[in-house]
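[audit] Reproducing an earlier prediction to check determinism. Same input, same settings, fresh worker. If the C-alpha cells differ from the archived copy the diff job will pick it up downstream; this log only records the rerun itself.
[audit] input (161 residues):
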Amino acid sequence: MFENVNWAAIEGIASVAGAIGVVISITFLIYEVRHNARAIEGATVQSLMTLEREVFGLLAENAELMTKGGKNPAALTDVEQYQYERGVGTYMSLIYSAYMQHERELVEDEVWDAYLNALARHMQAPGFSESWLQISIGYPKSFQDLIKERFPQSSQAKSIT
C-alpha cells in the first residue's frame, strides 16, 4: 500500500508547510510586538496626563504664591520661598518624568516638544528660573544639561542665596 508513495515529495511538502507556519508565526509575533508597543506608549502618555492634572491642580491651589514668586521672588517670605521652590520642583518633576519617558522612547517627540514648549513659558518668569537654579542639583546631570541647553537664560538667572 505504501510501496508506491513518493516519500521525498511528501517530505518536501511538509518542509514547505513548516516554513509557511514559521513565516505566519513570525508575522503574528511582529504584529503583537508593535501592538504592545503602541499600548505601552498610550499608557505612558495617559500616566503623564494624570500626573500633569495632579501637578496643575496643586499649582492652581497655590496660584497666588506661584504668581508672586514668579514675578518677584525677593518679595517672598522665607516660608513662601520654601513653598514656591516646592511648587517649581513639583512642576520640574513632571517635566523630568516626561523627559525620562521620551528618553526610553515611550512618548513621541511631539509629546516631549509640547512639554518643553510649556516649560518655556515658565522659564521666562525670573522667580521660576532662580528657583530652578537652586533645586536643579537634585536632578540628574543629563536633565540639568538639557535644561541649560534648551533654556540658556535660566542658567544666567540671578542666584538667590
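[audit] rerun output stored. Observation attached for the diff report: Residues 2 and 71 are 94 Å apart (CA to CA).
[audit] end
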